[in-house]
Specification:
Blueprint: H1 2-20, H2 30-52, H3 55-75, H4 81-107, H5 112-143, E1 161-167, H6 172-183, E2 190-197, H7 202-215, E3 219-225, H8 230-240, E4 248-251, E5 257-258, H9 262-266, E6 275-279, E7 283-284, H10 291-312, E8 324-327, H11 328-333, H12 344-354, E9 358-361, E10 367-369, H13 375-400, H14 412-423, H15 426-446, H16 462-483, H17 487-499, H18 501-513, H19 532-538, H20 540-559, H21 563-590, H22 596-601, H23 605-608, H24 621-638, E11 690-694
Parallel strand pairs: 1-2, 1-4, 2-3, 6-9, 7-10
Antiparallel strand pairs: 3-11, 4-8, 5-10, 6-8
Helix pairs in contact: 1-2, 1-3, 1-4, 1-16, 2-3, 3-4, 4-5, 5-10, 5-15, 5-16, 6-7, 10-16, 10-17, 13-14, 13-18, 15-18, 15-20, 15-21, 15-24, 16-17, 17-21, 19-21, 20-21
Amino acid sequence: MLLQLVLFFTLASVITTLAVMVPGLIRARAWASIPLGLAILAGAGWLTSLITQDAVAGMILPLFGVGAVIETRRHLPQWSMLAAQLLALLLVASAVYLIYAAVQPIVDGLSPLGVIASFLLLLLEASALSLSVYYLFEILDVFSRRTRIAHRAEPSYRPKVAMQVPCYNEPIEVMRETLTALAHLDYQDMIVQVVDNNTKDPQTWRPLEALCKELGERFHFIHLEPWPGYKAGALNEATRRLPQDVSILGIVDADYLVKPGFLKEMVGHFADERVAFVQTPQNYRDWRDSGYLRGLFYSYRYFFDVTMPSRANRNAIIFAGTMGLIRRSALERIGGWDENIITEDAEASLRLLGLGSTGVYEPTVWGEGLMPLSFDGLKKQRFRWALGGIQILRRQWRELLPLAPHRLRLTLGQRLAYLFGSVHWFSDLLTVGFTALLLLTAVAAALHHRLPVRELTGPILVVPLAFLITGVLRGLWALRRAERCSWSDAFRALAIWFALSWVDTLAVVRGLLSGQAAFLRTPKQKEGGNRLWPAIRSSAIESLLAILALVGAVVMLLAAPALATVILAVMLLFEAWIFGSAPWASLAAEGIQLTPQRKIYLRSAQNTGDRPERPSRAAVIPGALAVVVAVVLAYGLLNAPQTTPSGQADLPRIGSITNKQLPKTGPAPTPTPTASPSTSPSATPSASATATTSP
């Protein structure tokens, strides 16, 4: 009966997935969705009885499906019936498949080694299916929910605001656009604080200082060099220097153009004392003329159009930094930005919510930035985000587990949102694990060996493939529905997500090995030189993995042609698509037409991903992972039996640094180049540190 359960719920989830993709059905009323849902369950029952030759199962199993749907809908009354049905079916299908997979090694009488290997495979599958269910939950929560949680802004509330613009090594042309836009904000009681963090060349930061003076007394310039703590350390110091009557802080990246009405429309949310931060979407400009940039744009926007609205329904959004506002007193209450976390903004929002505060997500776009023009710059950005997510998990995992002892006052929904928000970075590590296992299987098939793990036979063979295909379809459908983009642009966005799988894996491994911050380092490209070879070299490892997966699929089909090997070969080809997306993205980025504005932006640290820090040990991780994969492959083949050919650390309070620790402030002579700040983000500024402040 277990086999019948797996097949029924898998078939029903596949059919329901196809149904919700039909325009309008995801939000269909009960009079339309209930008959459709019952027909789907009946059809899945009939197919199951046809496949298994079990007529009784075809009559009984739809009743189990109805019960699962009713129970899910009872907990999610704001959802449509069809959405509740899809979530229930995928959840139960995943659960019964995992039970089947757990029992099979024992039934097959595998050796202890085989049972252990099968259990490790089961953990991989359980992790992947859990993430798939959570991704689906976010999609359905946004597309099928009938009511939204909205927070009203008080129009008459007008506190004093400081817009902080952290920057490093930014071209003056980029900064001029950003600061000019801020000068036109329709808000009277405001100052702009430009925080230049560790730019060494005076010819870069001195013109920026002059620009601030040119824009008037509301613009304050601070130059910090050398300064520890990354951007978080610079912002903490900048906040210490603000006038005491500033109560709201805004963060704007160096390449963002903010619309005039941003503050006037958004600060009113802070009239509610419970509100600690307000986040608006991060949007981008100058992308429509390039297929690669269109795909990149939609891949960025998915987070703000699907993930953030879903999390907002449970007061579980993150503070994403730029285009966000945060209450100064709330930030001071938690000790400021954590200088040990590379994504200090997201980490701070977790602690703020843990104090019982509210985070407001306002989906209106109020500013636009520029996206990285090179794939190397994109990889560095993604490495920071993924590493920051793992750092948060290392620091706060006890707070995120539902049954663990807690200090933060988080709801269950908030804990799960932040838990999956950190854990989802492991999905790409799982991809590498599945690829290694499939490559082992291909080599074993070519040598007519058998791996010491459970084997799927019979109708159950198609279940993993069904999970894979429907997961991809739901992702493409969600992109098209949320972004109103074409199928081709949705595929490009998906390919860009895939292209970053390897760099995400590096970040996860780096985060697991060490809690210290690090930055991805890539070979420097000579300006004006040949751009083709650096593009190929930057994705060499991903290209190798794609080739191995492609060759493995072909070898498997030629060596042991059968239904099972065809399905495994298709899954290997999918892995080849994932890793092959990296060289595609790298080459596609080199095809971007360089307008005069883009040529200037190429020098921006926002584009290159460069940060003021000495190289770290993160560079050894690719080699270490390659060694691990090689060892696993060798071990699996040598041991394969022959067969016949058939913790949270408290931050110092803002302003707690003693006067002796503070760098000299005030007019200073042009500084000479000094050493980079210590790789330890909590280090005390060196005695030679200087800071230039211009009101």
